[in-house]
Design a protein that fits this description.
about 170 residues, alpha+beta, 8-stranded antiparallel barrel, 4 helices, 8 strands
Length: about 170
C-alpha cells in the first residue's frame, strides 16, 4: 500500500504542468521576507511581462525588525526611522528560464533596479509547484548609492547586500 501511494504521488507530481514565465502579458506577484544586516522585513513585488524574455515591475520592502542598536541609539543620525526602513524600486528583469532550458516550472532572472536608496542589480529564481503557486528567492546588491559618504548603520539599510525569499503567484 505504501508503495502504491508513493507511486501515485510521484506520477501526480510529474504530471503537474506549471510555467514560471510565460512571456508577454505574464503577471507575477511575490510576497516574502527580506533579510539584511541589522534588519528583517517584508518584501512584495509585481512583475509584468512585456516580451518573450523581458519583464518590468515594482518591488517594495519595509523592515519590521531592526537591530536594537538602531532603535535605542542616543545618536539621532543612527536611529532607524520610517525613511530608513522603507524602500521602493522600479525593476527590469531578463527572464532566462526558457533560454537555458531548465524546465517550464523554473525561471532564472537577472535584473536591474532603481530605488529610493540606490541603483542596483538582482539575481532571482522562481520555481512553480502548480500553475498558480511557487517559491522565489532573490539576491540584491547596490551598484551605485545616492549618498556616497560614510553611511550610518540606519542609512546602510537597503544600501547593502540583501536576500528576499517567499511565495510567488501567477495572476
Amino acid at each position: 500500500m505504501q508503495k502504491l501511494i508513493l507511486l501515485l504521488t510521484l506520477l501526480s507530481v510529474s504530471l503537474v504542468s506549471a510555467q514560471a514565465y510565460k512571456g508577454k502579458d505574464d503577471n507575477k506577484f511575490q510576497v516574502g521576507t527580506n533579510l539584511q544586516e541589522n534588519g528583517t522585513g517584508i518584501n512584495v513585488s509585481y512583475d509584468y511581462g512585456i516580451g518573450e524574455n523581458i519583464s518590468f515591475g515594482i518591488s517594495s520592502t519595509y523592515l519590521l525588525g531592526v537591530a536594537d542598536a538602531l532603535l535605542k541609539n542616543a545618536v539621532g543620525d543612527e536611529k532607524a526611522d520610517f525613511g530608513d526602513r522603507f524602500d521602493v524600486r522600479a525593476r527590469f528583469n531578463a527572464n532566462l528560464g526558457n533560454v537555458i532550458n531548465v524546465g517550464d516550472n523554473f525561471d532564472v532572472y537577472p535584473g536591474l533596479s532603481l530605488g529610493l536608496k540606490n541603483f542596483g542589480g538582482h539575481l532571482g529564481a522562481r520555481y512553480f509547484f502548480t500553475e498558480g503557486f511557487g517559491v522565489y528567492t532573490e539576491l540584491n546588491v547596490p551598484f551605485a548609492k545616492y549618498k556616497t559618504d560614510n553611511l550610518t548603520p540606519a542609512e546602510a539599510l537597503h544600501n547593502q547586500f540583501t536576500v528576499n525569499l517567499g511565495a510567488s503567484f501567477n495572476l
